Amino acid sequence: MAKEAKTLDDLFHDTLKDIYFAEKKILATLPKMAKAAQSEELRAAFEKHEAETEEQIGRLEQVFAAIDKKPQAKTCDAIVGITEEGAEIMKEYKGSPALDAGLLAAAQAVEHYEISRYGTLIAWAEELGLEDALSLLEETLEEEKATDEALTEIAKSAINQQAEAA
Amino acid sequence: MAKEAKTLDDLFHDTLKDIYFAEKKILATLPKMAKAAQSEELRAAFEKHEAETEEQIGRLEQVFAAIDKKPQAKTCDAIVGITEEGAEIMKEYKGSPALDAGLLAAAQAVEHYEISRYGTLIAWAEELGLEDALSLLEETLEEEKATDEALTEIAKSAINQQAEAA
User: Fold this and answer.
1) Which chain B residue lies closest to A115 (C-alpha atoms)?
2) Is the pTM for the entire model greater than 0.80?
């Protein structure tokens, strides 16, 4: 294979490096979001997802092994941008009653990025016949979807509490 | 209201400026993606979404009007990062059989960002009682979801075609 002729294998490998970087960035960001969260419920959700993210990183390392590659991170501009927006919210809404709503929105943008990336990797793993990688990626995708749903529930319950207090 | 005490109204307005920037960036990016696409089906999908994006920008301008604000864009680091990744794919996979798969993945990352943002804005519009904004945002969210599903279908059909050709 000539170096110029990039294939779906290369695209799978490149995207794996991208999400590996992203998960590590998320792992570094979650403790800051947990610390900033005003409600106990949101803080607990971030802490739970931090533990899950560590496992997800371990699973990605198994996916690298499944394609005979060393785990390697490649700067993912998307997650850098998404987490910068979250950092901006933490700064601009510090002490504001809307802070948690902003943190929730930032976290859901992260989840949706991950859902999109894992969905793509799963489709390619299927095409490439990477059975082991497939089941690892599917396990993580289910966790990300569950996290997104849990965040939606927290957002709804926060809205209801405020409505009742009004 | 003191300038320091940012409320959910401010968060709604800030996020509206963010997605307004994002939609304009997407509108500028779609013709490049359409030009790069190898399959007619993918090119047509990007062209269709370009027309939709123009309408979505018009709807956002109506949402600004509904909250008595002038349309204003605020740099959205997330979409800058996501579209940079797409530009990288176009460059690195030019002439590769995997180019369309990469373009599809990039476009789905964009769609998921938008789905997350519109979902958030809808929840806040409900809480703030912004009825007019709500229906405009819901209309766009449905379009974004339909676009994401259409892209998934194109990805599947491309995979099947390759499998049949193999």
Assistant:
1) B112
2) yes
- Taking the CA atoms of A161, B62, A103 and A37 in sequence, report the sign of the dihedral they define: negative
CA distance A29 to B21: 25
Which of A93, A125, A114 lies closest to A20, judged by CA? A114
ipTM of this model?
0.91
The phi, psi pair for A38, rounded to 5°, reads -85, -40
Please tell me the predicted confidence (pLDDT) of residue B2: 45
Residue B97: both structure tokens together: 């059989």
Distance of alpha carbon B147 from alpha carbon B108, whole angstroms: 9
Whole-number Å distance between alpha carbons of B26 and B124:
24
**Whether the Cβ atoms of residue B78 and residue A78 lie closer than 8 Å to each other:** yes
Residue of B129, B136, B147, B148 whose CA lies nearest to B59: B136
Helix pair angle (A99-128, A77-92), 10° resolution: 170
The ranges of chain B with pLDDT < 50 are 1-2
pLDDT score for B156: 84
Residues in B touching A158 (Cβ below 8 Å):
none
One-letter amino acid at A113 equals Y
pLDDT, tens digit, 9 for 90 and up, residues A4-23: 679 999 999 999 999 999 99
What residues of A are in contact with residue B155 (Cβ under 8 Å)?
A: 123
For residue A4, count other CB atoms closer than 10 A to its CB. 8
In one letter, which amino acid is A156? K
**Chain A: nearest CA to B26, how far in angstroms?**
14
Do the beta carbons of residue A77 and residue B85 sit within 8 Å? yes
